[in-house]
């Protein structure tokens, strides 16, 4: 499907994707090329661990790559793309995982009518459990989109969305893992205050969140039904949920997603 894949940016998301495509044998190690801004030690480390090619020479890195993955931070995109756009050809496919940044804007920076797929994975990619959403830019075909789906399926599930939905997706599944970690941190604090052993608490909380996730996935029941089944009249769960309602946690969660979405829109405009 791809002969050579070049990652521009070698941070945590690039590593998660690399790990997925190697573990599932989607690509051979020697087909993967990576660069970052100036962190030689990081590249050496990646090269040793995954046996992939690392190179600071942009021309060499991009030459012959049928897929280029933009995996730098949004604020670094302009400089990174400026310094390599002359080596990019219209028959190459670009996948961007940059939060907030439109395919049109990337095409404008590159200055060519090039196929671009925009994707929003999440950090669970590092264990093959990302919820990734993808969308295609103006010059990308259905075939390009399907190739991207195949790639992101190596690191979890992949959903196809409209480009205008990508900001919402970022607020839901891109940043989403952090919301659950936040809840876990709070539960750990409560357990600690109550004097429960930290290791025991951690084991119980982790298995509780994994179990709830699997119930959502496997039971075929809605979150609301599953919650009601736990909530005995005048029981402990009712007392707990009434507290969440008193604090208006539902509204807080809705605003949390909304603000992440707004920030994604801003990130796109800041470029
Ligand atoms: N961390 C997350 O949960 C998610 C992040 N994203 C997006 O993924 C992208 C990368 O995020 P992370 O991996 O967390 O960032 P990171 O900070 O870990 O990595 C960024 C990489 O880009 C490199 N870079 C910066 N300027 C460069 C340049 N001029 N040329 C080449 N490389 C350059 C850096 O050296 C670094 O290797 C961001 O655009 C972010 O919006 C998307 C989904 C989830
Ligand atoms: O916080 C961020 O900007 C990135 C994008 C999605 C998750 N993390």
UniProtKB/TrEMBL annotation:
Keywords tagged on the record: Amino-acid biosynthesis, Cytoplasm, Membrane, NADP, Oxidoreductase, Proline biosynthesis, Transmembrane, Transmembrane helix
GO terms for MF: pyrroline-5-carboxylate reductase activity
Residue span(s) of domain Pyrroline-5-carboxylate reductase dimerisation: 163-267
Keyword DNA-binding in annotation: no
Localization annotation: Cytoplasm
Name this polypeptide is given: Pyrroline-5-carboxylate reductase
Domain of life: Bacteria
Transmembrane regions: 6-27
EC class: oxidoreductase
Family named by the database record: Belongs to the pyrroline-5-carboxylate reductase family.
Catalyses which reaction(s): L-proline + NADP(+) = (S)-1-pyrroline-5-carboxylate + NADPH + 2 H(+); L-proline + NAD(+) = (S)-1-pyrroline-5-carboxylate + NADH + 2 H(+)
Pathway: Amino-acid biosynthesis; L-proline biosynthesis; L-proline from L-glutamate 5-semialdehyde: step 1/1
Enzyme Commission (EC) number: 1.5.1.2
Function summary: Catalyzes the reduction of 1-pyrroline-5-carboxylate (PCA) to L-proline.
Annotated ranges, domain Pyrroline-5-carboxylate reductase catalytic N-terminal: 4-100
């Amino acid at each position: 499907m791809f002969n050579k894949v070049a990652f521009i940016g070698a941070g945590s998301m690039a590593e998660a994707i690399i790990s997925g495509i190697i573990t599932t044998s989607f690509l051979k190690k020697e087909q993967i090329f990576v660069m970052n801004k100036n962190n030689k030690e990081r590249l050496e480390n990646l090269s040793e661990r995954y046996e992939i090619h690392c190179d600071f020479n942009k021309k060499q890195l991009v030459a012959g790559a049928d897929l280029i993955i933009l995996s730098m931070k949004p604020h670094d995109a302009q400089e990174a793309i400026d310094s390599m756009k002359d080596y990019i050809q219209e028959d190459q496919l670009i996948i961007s995982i940059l939060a907030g940044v439109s395919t049109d804007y990337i095409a404008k920076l590159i200055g060519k009518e090039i196929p671009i797929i925009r994707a929003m994975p999440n950090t669970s990619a590092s264990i093959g459990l990302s919820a990734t959403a993808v969308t295609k830019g103006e010059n990308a075909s259905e075939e390009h989109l399907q190739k991207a789906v195949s790639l992101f399926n190596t690191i979890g599930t992949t959903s196809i969305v409209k480009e205008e939905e990508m900001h919402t997706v970022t607020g839901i599944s891109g940043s989403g893992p952090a919301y659950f970690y936040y809840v876990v941190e709070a539960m750990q604090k409560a357990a600690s205050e109550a004097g429960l052993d930290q290791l025991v608490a951690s084991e119980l909380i982790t298995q509780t969140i994994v179990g709830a996730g699997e119930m959502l996935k496997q039971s075929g029941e809605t979150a609301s039904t599953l919650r009601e089944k736990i909530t005995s009249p005048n029981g402990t769960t009712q007392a707990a949920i009434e507290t969440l309602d008193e604090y208006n946690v539902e509204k807080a969660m809705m605003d949390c997603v909304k603000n992440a979405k707004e920030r994604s829109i801003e990130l796109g405009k800041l470029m």
